[in-house]
Amino acid sequence: MFNFYIIILFVLLIITFLLSMFFSASENSFIQLNKFKIKNLIYKNKKIGREIYKILSNMDLFLSTILVGNNFAIFGFTSISLLLLLKFGIPKAQATTYNLIFSTLLILLFAEIAPKNIGRERSHYFSYKFYPLLKFFQRLFLPITYPVSLLIKLIYSLFNITKENRLDEISKKEIYTLTKSSGMKGLFPNFDTKMIERIFNFRNKRIYDAIIPLNETQPISSKKTINNVKKIFSENDIEYLPVYKNNITNIIGYTKPTDLLNIKNKELPIREIMRDLIYIPEFINLLDILDYFEEEFVLGVIDEYGIVSGLITLNDVIDEILGEEENIISKKVKADNNINIVDEIIVSGKTPLEQLKIEFGIDIKDKDVNTLAGFLMKTFKKIPSRGTTYKYGNYQFKILKSSPTKIKRIKIKNIS
């Protein structure tokens, strides 16, 4: 009888220890579940997805079950281990001390730390295997956990705490992390993960992040005739022309090519048909100006002194989201003695000289400028037109695209 009693206690000791391990592992494994995978299981009409969703839909009940079950298991384990020590004839004082040390170390290492780490690392495997057992304990402990859940809800209401279901909404951080990791793994090789980041940060973007400075536009005098303006549009690939009065900083309106259609009097001053310009301060957010573009194509941006500092269009706002053109647009490589040499590259005018030196070995020594466009403008002492070429060392620079105010695209060819 004595031996049978000892065996029963040992069996109960193992059971309570395993239950403590189970509840500790369950806590971490269910909380660490990937919500995308659970949602996917639900979309595939899998029972396991629906059941796990039900468990996590009521986090109060889930956590209450874990805490109640773990406390019962730990209490049972320490009580049974103390009984066993006493049965082996160890004095009560010493048995209590031994039990405290033994139980604490054993539970801490093998029923808390180890299961929690395993549950975190193998969260889906553990949850899929043992969710029925957790559901059983949820029902078993319901008489205890239900009042606890009601108490928690009362605390929420007293402190005005909003409870969220962690599976219902996917945060922007999770979407960004998913797309970034997918891009790194090559799942979406042509997907620009930086665009996601720009979209999420769009609310914090200011107008000056997308503004076109006034010196990069091509303002025309309000006295220009319709015929003159038509000629400017035909010679330049531009969507609009800002109109100024008396001086270039006094922008009073703008015009588009479509405004000039069906105008019979070609000598009419452009101020007679130009569109009025709406002015907005440069320190407001990009998000706040979107409504303006329902009626206007161009907005004038003014600084704190009321001076027009630049212009902005809806395309500029979209470019801020999608990203501007990369500095290195394309390149061609040729083989020379089994060595790949860059034969031809097409770059943006804003490409830093330092980047050309580091990536392609094109060493342009000029301390006064930082970009390729700046170097070419300094060389020509003007903004060169399309097709203009310039030789520097072993390279030929050809202007592929430019405007009256900037060099936009250049082809660099190795002529060595």
Task: Give the CA-based shape.
Answer: elongated
Q: Number of helix segments?
A: 13
The N- to C-terminal Cα distance equals 100 Å
Mean pLDDT: 82
Summarize the structure.
This protein is α+β, with helices and mostly antiparallel strands and 416 residues long. It has helices at 2-31, 35-43, 47-57, 59-87, 92-121, 123-140, 142-158, 172-184, 193-200, 226-235, 314-322, 353-360, 372-380, and strands at residues 212-213, 220-221, 241-244, 251-255, 275-276, 278-281, 298-302, 308-313, 328-336, 339-348, 389-392, 395-402, 407-414. α10 links the parallel β2 and β3.
What do these coordinates show?
The protein has 416 residues and is of the alpha+beta class. It folds into 4 domains: 2-158, no CATH class; 172-200, no CATH class; 207-322, CBS-domain (Roll), CATH 3.10.580.10; 328-414, Uridine Diphospho-n-acetylenolpyruvylglucosamine Reductase, domain 3 (2-Layer Sandwich), CATH 3.30.465. The chain is built from 13 helices and 13 strands. The chain has helices at residues 2-31, 35-43, 47-57, 59-87, 92-121, 123-140, 142-158, 172-184, 193-200, 226-235, 314-322, 353-360, 372-380, and strands at residues 212-213, 220-221, 241-244, 251-255, 275-276, 278-281, 298-302, 308-313, 328-336, 339-348, 389-392, 395-402, 407-414. The strands form 3 sheets. The chain has a 5-stranded antiparallel beta sheet, covered by helices on one side. Strand 11 and strand 12 form a beta hairpin. The longest helix is centred in the first third of the chain and has 30 residues, at 2-31. It is elongated, with a radius of gyration of 36 Å. The termini are far apart. The model has no long low-confidence stretch (mean pLDDT 82).
